[in-house]
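Table 4 source record.
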Amino acid sequence: MLLAAPYPDRGVHLVVAVLGSSRYWKGDGRNSFGKAFVDAATELNAHIAHEGFESSICQVASADLENFLNGIVMKYDPDR
């Protein structure tokens, strides 16, 4: 999922990418966000499908946003 939130007074967008990942690190602290989802589901006995989480966050000048997003789509490699 890719989300761009505008900050008009700064002339930038906050861009957040969250990817489902087959990599799920148990117990070593590298992916505590994903572990929190699993722990919450376990505690509540909720039924979820979970593979893990990876995310990236950056600020992009609003004037560059369209080209930046197009570049992400063109360069995204799900095998990396």
